[in-house]
Every structure is written in C-alpha cells, then in structure tokens.
Amino acid sequence: MRLVNIRYLEEGSILARQVINPSGKVLLQAGVRLTASYLSRLQTMGYDILFIQDDRLEDVELHTAITAQTREVAYKTIENVCKFVEDGSESRLKVDDVRITVQRMITDLLSSSDVMDNLTEIQGFDDYTFHHSVNTTILALVLGIASGYSEQKLIELGMGVLMHDIGKIKISEVILNKKTPLTEAEFAEIMQHTSYGFDILHKNNDLSLLSAHVAFQHHEKWDGSGYPRRLKGSEIHEYGRLTAVADVYEALTSKRVYRNAIEPNEAYEYVISQANTHFEPRVIGVFKKHIAVYPSGSGILLSNGQRGNVVKQNPTFPNRPYVRVFYQNEETLCAPIDYNLADYPSIMIVASDNR
Ligand SMILES: [Fe+2]
Fold first, then answer.
1. CA–CA gap between residue 106 and residue 101 (Å, rounded)
2. For the whole model, what pTM was predicted?
C-alpha cells in the first residue's frame, strides 16, 4: 500500500483504500482499478492523495483512527447541529446525538492499535467545516487519551470540539470564503465566532459548560495573544489549550480557500515551534509523542538523497519511522533497502514526496 499524489497516478492503479467524500459517503471501493475518468473526476473534486496497492509495500498496514461508518455518523451529527442553529432553533438543540457520536469515536480510537497513523485521512479535501470539525475532534481525542483523560472528560472534550466552530454559522459566508486577505473589520467579525459559539452552547442544559468553553477558548493562546479574551496560561481551560493545538494542526494540513495544504512536516515543525508562545508546552510534548508526521505508506525524501516510503511508525520516535528506499537518488532505482531511522541518527527525512 502506497500513498500517491493524484498528479502522478497512472490509470490502471488499484485503490488500496476506499475513497470517501466529505459527507462520509463511499465514492470508490478499495480494489477498484482507476480509470482516466475516475482520476480526472477525483482531481476536480479536490482530492490530492490516494492509497494504491503496491506489491513492494505489501507489509504496510492501513490504520484508520475511526471507521468509515463512524465518520459518516459524525458528519451527519454536526450537519444536523448546524441546521438547528441555522434555523434559529438552538434552544431546542438535542445534544444526545453528539454525545453518542463522540462515544463512538472514542471507542474506535481506543480499539485502534496505532492511532498515530490517523492523520493519513486528514489531507486532501477542500475546506469543509464538517470535515475540519471531525478531524479536529479525532486529533483532540488522541491528545486527550494520551493525556490520560477519563471517559467522562473525553466525552466533554469531544462534544465541545465537534461543535467548536458552530459560531461560524453567524458569520457571513462572503467573509468566511474570502480568498484575499481579510480587512481588520472582517477579521474582527471572524473572531466573534468564538463568542457566538459559546452563546449558542452554554444555554444548553444538556451540555457541560466546559464543552461550551471549548468553542469560547479554542483561539486563546498560551502567551495571552489569542482571542476573544486574551486569556493566558492556566486561565485557559485545559480543553481549550488542547483543542488549540488540534485545531491549528488540522487547519494547516488541510486545503483552505486561500491556500493549499502545507507539507505535514512543515505543519508539525510549526506547531512544535509554538510551544510556550501559542501552545502549552505539556500539550506539545504529548503531540510530539503521539502524532505521526509521515503516515505509513507515504513517500519521503531522505537527507542522503535516497527516496522511498514509510513502512511503519516508530512509537518512540514519531519523526523517525521505518522506511524502505527504492531510489538511490531522485530518479535511479535501486534494490529495496530498509532502515529503522531511529538507528540512523545521521539520516533524516527532509521532505514528503508522494510520486
Ligand atoms: Fe475557530
């Protein structure tokens, strides 16, 4: 199984993993042979990366953080919540479905043998609020599980994260989808989505006040430079500090209307570089241990010029996975060589290269 940028895919390649659309529906099943028309349609729809079968990487295992069914339920749940709020019926918002969905996500994550790999699903689609909410929830739950949270805390956190951007419903779509830089006034309006979200959620008696605070605080920064209240350090609830990391990393690795996704290693380095300024150092410590930079199956370029793919994650060194090299340099094929990069400190991954 290999992860390939769709630009480099030739017709005849066989899908190793089903292709799911942003609402969670299966577009193409695993095992389907890709035709030129499938490829061009997927490209038009905004897909960047697909998993294809590759005999040389048969031992690469696919891990999904949550099942396709759970993902579909999660999209439906957040879509329903949004509809309620859009209709102005937020006082009647039933959050039981949100609780059940989050419980289901937690069960999936806890039964997945290697949640570190979950980010493989986080690239590829155009900006899509539901997609962002679900992926941010997965990331936040991974960080929560790794922080030793009880099930009760995970549910509270997850419910808040799934609805953290709900206040965006009150913001004009023209501003949300603007492709050019925002004016000061427009940015001030965008910032309001945190307070709007809190207003919507905190009135709901079935929802913990701490979950509502996730919407309120997810843009606060550890050093006090965030919004809306410029809270600092422990003034920000731990759910807010944790969600801030998940939200930023997810946003950076996804496409947005105004830019393409950036490389996962760049997003990873950026997030880590903001420990102590934007983010709580403890959360960054957990992030570093539990989030894989290069998903299994992805193509990588090494500092010695060799090119290959990630075979397996290294739980103790997330940025030093097991890799298999197929190219001596950019173009020249060689006999496959396996490295556990943890044993080769002088060799580093310098870029992802999903040809
Ligand atoms: Fe937000």
1. 9
2. 0.86
pLDDT tens digits, one per residue of 29-42: 999 999 999 999 98
Please provide the DSSP assignment of 6-64 as one string.
Answer: GGG--TT-BBSS-EE-TTS-EEE-TTPBPPHHHHHHHHHTT--EEEE--GGGTTPPP--
Segments in the chain below pLDDT 50: 118, 120, 122-127
What pLDDT does residue 258 have? 53
Distance of CA 158 from the midpoint of ligand 1 (Å): 15
Ligand 1 centre and the CA of 233: distance in Å?
19
Distance 323 CA to ligand 1 centre (A): 36
CATH numeric code, 68-290 = 1.10.3210.10
Q: Confirm whether 2-53 and 68-290 share one CATH topology.
A: no
* pLDDT score for 119: 52
CA of 43 to the centre of ligand 1 (A): 28
pLDDT score of 221? 98
Domain ranges of the chain: 2-53, 68-290, 299-352
Ligand 1 geometric centre to CA of 190 (Å): 9
Span from the CA of 275 to the centroid of ligand 1 (angstroms): 19
Calculate the alpha carbon distances from 288 to 142, 146, 212, 234, 297 in Å: 12, 11, 27, 21, 20
> Distance from the CA of 164 to the center of ligand 1, in angstroms?
7
**Cβ(197)–Cβ(190) under 8 Å?**
no
Give me the pLDDT at residue 63, please.
72
**CATH class name, domain 2-53:** alpha beta
Residue that has been written with the tokens 């040389």 in this structure: 56
Give distance in angstroms: CA of 15 to centre of ligand 1.
34
Q: How far is the CA of 91 from the centre of ligand 1 (A)?
A: 22
Strands 299-302 and 349-352: antiparallel
pLDDT given at position 123 = 44
Q: Residue length, the chain?
A: 355
